[in-house]
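Lab notebook, bench 4. Still working through the backlog of constructs that have no structural model yet. Next entry is a single chain of 241 residues. Request: give me the structure tokens for it.
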Amino acid sequence: MEWLGPLPPKAATTLPLLNKEIIACTKCPRLVDWREEVAVVKRKSYEAEKYWGRPVPSFGSDTPKLMIVGLAPGAHGANRTGRIFTGDSSGDWLYAALHRVGIAKIPTSTSIKDGQALRDTRITCAVHCAPPDNKPSTIERDTCAPFLTQEFELASGSTRTYVALGSFAWSSTIKSLRQLGHTIETTKFAHASQVTFKSGDVRITIFGCYHPSQQNTFTGKLTKPMLESLLAKAAKAAGIT
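Model written out:
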């Protein structure tokens, strides 16, 4: 695939406008082809549903104290429903944990019409299109990165804590924050790893968390108490609880 380079600077001055730009993006040919193919072929259990089949925007507060960063939309989850971490087992784990720590309004996230809402929290991802085998390429990550950097910049006035779900999100989060001029020491990803940096007089913390994928939850690498404990710690650091 030919690398089209990073996205040019955009005019979005608010997070809602940035979401509109994300939804309209067609920069990565492989991802465009895959997300649209999945939306037509569908999984048998969802064959009666209309798939979203486009880049998945971020979800939550427009003035977030806590920013949660995932890898990419699931082919039959967010790529189907149109909301990040919605309609698959990873989302079941994440929203249930967020509900238990007092952030999510309800413990499930099944569709964009289910009434879900997040308190002082926003969920985004490093890549906004569903990738084959859940593995975006380095070029695709870099092409989508300006969206993440811009999102962090637009939310910088309120964000106090970041949670990176998995090593891919961890490295993407740190890279985008460094592009905004922050000095962040190199820290290896691990569950409950953390690194702090200063933004003016404000102390910001980045937490690492195992991704709530079936690969981690089925094997016991990530348990519900582990996920809930880390999110509660991040919420407290952000000043939410």
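Notes after review: The two ends are 46 Å apart (CA to CA). Helices lie at 15-23, 29-41, 78-81, 89-100, 138-154, 167-179, 214-217, 224-238. Flag for follow-up if needed.
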